[in-house]
């Protein structure tokens, strides 16, 4: 019976065959302990000299790290194993003998590991992080599909910026100017006015020369847009979504969280509703915490976000930022037009902003004013102005950065480990 490590528990006291790689081994006289991986998980296989042929025992004893093989044996209970079982080996069929694998079971510098990212992905830690990433993606699709959203794929090559910034990757599109998308939001607004509730999940690009542990050049975003939804309703959707993915990881990634030594008590608290604090209140809180130089109208940096988040035991919404430091499409507060109906969701434990969202402008004359203020003239934005002309409605949306969310839920210090092949300021390889 051919199976996988993840399914082997279903075959207790039965003999099975698994295709695997060797991650490590140790031998003691007449017994060898092989640490296996097969992509679905990690497991120990025990090779006893008295239970196998001499060729099989010598093969087990002499195989090198990352050699590949089919291994056959009985699945037995082992309470010391995280999986709860191991294999008693009967036979090994070598597929490929690996020699001089560069990532040995010792400490390596981060630059060395990043240079060998194509191989580093095989490690137990990276496997756990990628499985958590995958669970967040799976839960994302479940949440939005179960709640009546339609997935829409916005273009990656665009003629304009979603937020009117200059931090874009520029390219030629035949005889036109084009950019790599930094957000699909504007296109999703158009889709929301066609389908009601939509979401996208795809890569985005920011040409920011940043080296912080929170920034990537290429990253993935989940961006929902919702017609007939106001700002407060959007906040409820956001907190329910984040709660859902956190609880899904807790339920389905117990082995991976344990492998990363994640304090799951922190994640168990991630349940809606989340606390909310206005920008004005956040300024006052920061001054109380010793940030005496912070002034109204300034954006918050990482130290400010961390200080605010430390005041709560859940993610916290900071709402109603000054209009001057937010994007042109955000709707002004009806009672305080100097601020906009927006919110950033700040993750606890120093992970910073994971969501930015707002209610969008739905007034043609106001949008024309914004165009003039931000210099958004020209054909590139004409289609977006059409949304205001033809049947616009109150609508809201937000964007969640996947890699920052993975880092927070998995308890990872740097976002470079939360994406298979990170693109950083100094790294385009491998």
From TrEMBL:
Residues 130-430 form the Aminoacyl-transfer RNA synthetases class-II family profile domain. Pfam families: tRNA-synt_2, tRNA_anti-codon. GO terms for molecular function: asparagine-tRNA ligase activity. It comes from Virgibacillus alimentarius. Coiled coil: none annotated. It catalyses: tRNA(Asn) + L-asparagine + ATP = L-asparaginyl-tRNA(Asn) + AMP + diphosphate + H(+). InterPro entries: Aa-tRNA-synt_II (IPR004364), aa-tRNA-synth_II (IPR006195), aa-tRNA-synth_II/BPL/LPL (IPR045864), Asn-tRNA-ligase (IPR004522), Asp/Asn-tRNA-synth_IIb (IPR002312), NA-bd_OB-fold (IPR012340), NA-bd_OB_tRNA (IPR004365). This is Asparagine--tRNA ligase. Belongs to the class-II aminoacyl-tRNA synthetase family. Keywords: Aminoacyl-tRNA synthetase, ATP-binding, Cytoplasm, Ligase, Nucleotide-binding, Protein biosynthesis. It is found in: Cytoplasm. Homodimer. PANTHER family: ASPARAGINE--TRNA LIGASE, MITOCHONDRIAL-RELATED, ASPARTYL/LYSYL-TRNA SYNTHETASE. Its EC number is 6.1.1.22.
């Amino acid at each position: 019976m051919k199976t996988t490590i993840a399914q082997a528990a279903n075959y207790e006291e039965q003999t099975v065959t698994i295709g695997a790689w060797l991650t490590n081994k140790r031998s003691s006289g007449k017994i060898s302990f092989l640490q296996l991986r097969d992509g679905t998980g990690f497991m120990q296989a025990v090779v006893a000299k008295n239970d196998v042929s001499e060729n099989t025992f010598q093969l087990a004893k002499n195989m090198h790290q990352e050699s590949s093989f089919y291994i056959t044996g009985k699945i037995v209970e082992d309470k010391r194993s995280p999986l709860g079982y191991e294999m008693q080996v009967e036979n090994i069929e070598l597929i490929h003998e690996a020699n001089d694998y560069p990532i040995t079971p010792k400490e390596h510098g981060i630059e060395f590991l990043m240079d060998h990212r194509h191989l580093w992905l095989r490690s137990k830690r990276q496997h756990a992080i990628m499985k958590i990433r995958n669970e967040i993606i799976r839960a994302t699709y479940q949440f939005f599909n179960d709640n009546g959203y339609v997935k829409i794929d916005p273009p990656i090559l665009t003629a304009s910026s979603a937020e009117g910034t200059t931090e874009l990757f520029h390219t030629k599109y035949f005889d036109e100017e084009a950019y790599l998308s930094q957000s699909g939001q504007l296109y999703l607004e158009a889709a929301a006015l066609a389908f009601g509730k939509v979401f996208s999940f795809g890569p985005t690009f920011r040409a920011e020369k940043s080296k912080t542990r929170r920034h990537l050049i290429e990253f993935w975003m989940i961006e929902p847009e919702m017609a007939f939804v106001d700002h407060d309703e959007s906040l409820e959707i956001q907190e329910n979504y984040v709660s859902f993915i956190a609880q899904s990881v807790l339920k389905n990634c117990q082995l991976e969280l344990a492998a990363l030594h994640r304090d799951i008590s922190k994640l168990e608290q991630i349940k809606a509703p989340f606390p909310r604090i206005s920008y004005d209140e956040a300024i006052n809180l920061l001054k109380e915490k010793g940030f005496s130089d912070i002034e109204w109208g300034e954006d918050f940096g990482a130290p400010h976000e961390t200080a605010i988040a430390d005041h709560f035991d859940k993610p916290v919404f900071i709402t109603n930022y000054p209009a001057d430091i937010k994007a042109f499409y955000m709707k002004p507060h009806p009672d305080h037009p100097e601020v906009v109906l927006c919110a950033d969701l700040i993750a606890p434990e120093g992970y910073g902003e994971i969501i930015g969202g707002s209610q969008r402008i739905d007034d043609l004359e106001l949008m024309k004013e914004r165009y003039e203020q931000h210099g958004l003239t020209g054909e590139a934005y004409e289609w977006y102005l059409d949304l205001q002309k033809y049947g616009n409605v109150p609508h809201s949306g937000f964007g969640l950065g996947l890699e920052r969310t993975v880092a927070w839920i998995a308890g990872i210090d740097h976002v470079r480990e939360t994406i298979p092949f990170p693109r950083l300021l100094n790294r385009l390889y491998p």
